[in-house]
Amino acid sequence: MSVPPPEPLAPGTYTFRADAAVAGERLDLAVARLTALSRTQAATLIATGRVQVDGRAERASWRVEAGATIAVEIPEPPGREVLPERIPIRVVYEDEELVAVDKPAGMVVHPAPGNWSGTLVNALMGRGQGLAPGTAPERAGLVHRLDKETSGLLLVAKTDRAHRTLSAALAARRITRRYACLAWGHLEADRLTVDRPLGRAANDRTRMAVRADGRPARTDFQRLARFDSADLLRARLHTGRTHQIRVHLSAIGHPVVGDDTYGGGGGRRLVGLPPNRHFLHAAWLVFKHPVSGTDMDLRSPLPAELRHSLATVAGEPTWFAHPDPLEYLGFYRADD
Fold first, then answer.
1. Model confidence at 335, in pLDDT bands (50, 70, 90)?
2. CA–CA separation, 250 vs 236, rounded Å?
3. Is residue 273 domain-resident?
4. Is 195 in the same domain as 320?
């Protein structure tokens, strides 16, 4: 089974402590490894003074010393126009202020180096509608994001006031986001809260990890069904860190089924899951409309490939035919 290559780090300034994984390597190779950039890109950063070792510049050929502090500045890419594309997307709700879409697995949310086309933002622009500017043109309208292989509901603002209000509501935890996920093994209780800080993994900056110096992260898990090899869970996010659900489940020894990055990729055939797909779906959003204040309750049934996987692991072929097994299993019941 092939594992997709790690995504390069986004533009920004990063600080690394050289450990055994990079000690003794050439600086350009070490920077490439730490950032998931190419060696040529790393060498360019070094040559243009964007890499400092303990506060000083070094050549690309310099051998990294254990314990050295390596600061890397990754600049914004040269301006590149984000083009509208005619890509079909499923709209769950839309009005003058916002649009809620049901993102399929495999679609990247916004353009970035290596994915300048085929993204959700390209598709939204292709509908000919206005989007709130956001922080950058490639992130126009986005209130939150989903990982590439995570499917489900995503809010996009069409106006500045909707973007401001929804972003503030998200920061204040007034938008309730619940995900359906299948996790290997069995939780020790039907309800479990994981409250562990998350940050970039020390040895692989494209991955996240539980870190004492990380940012606070809390996820509530509730078991909906217990099968021979896995639990079907409802996950509620209290914070929105990168890969939060996936890392929290991996940290307690129950990775998301199909998650090659965090230890859940094995046994894919046993649960009828297609390649390059993990069992994580953003199924339920509850929030107040940013302008009218109306209570919004948006739902996304499991996609066909996840219904098939659930039927396989449950040994219940009829579940595949059910329009939404989550409703049958009580996923949409209010929290107790």
1. confident
2. 16
3. yes
4. yes
Among the three residues 22, 47, 74, which one is the final residue of a domain in this structure?
74
Say whether both 112 and 61 belong to one domain.
no
| For the chain, percent of residues with pLDDT exceeding 90 | 68
Residue 147 annotated as catalytic? yes
Position 134 scores a pLDDT of 67
Domain presence at residue 336: no
Q: Examine the pLDDT at 320 and tell me if it is beyond 90.
A: no
**pTM, full prediction:** 0.78
Q: How many residues does the chain have?
A: 336
Query: Which CATH number is 279's domain given?
Result: 3.30.2350.10
Write the CA distances from 218 to 54, 124, 163, integer angstroms: 34, 31, 24
103 CA to centre of own chain: 12
Q: Is the pLDDT of residue 169 over 70?
A: yes
* Count of CB atoms situated within 10 Å of the CB of 84: 14
Q: Are residues 200 and 305 in the same domain?
A: yes
Compare 296 and 268 and report the one with higher pLDDT: 296
Specify if 207 maps to a domain: yes
**Which one of 28, 147, 259, 260 is the catalytic residue?**
147
How much is the mean pLDDT over the chain? 90
Task: Specify the amino acid at residue 323.
Answer: P
**Per DSSP, what are the bridge partners of residue 183?**
231, 256
Alpha carbon distance 119, 113 (integer Å): 12
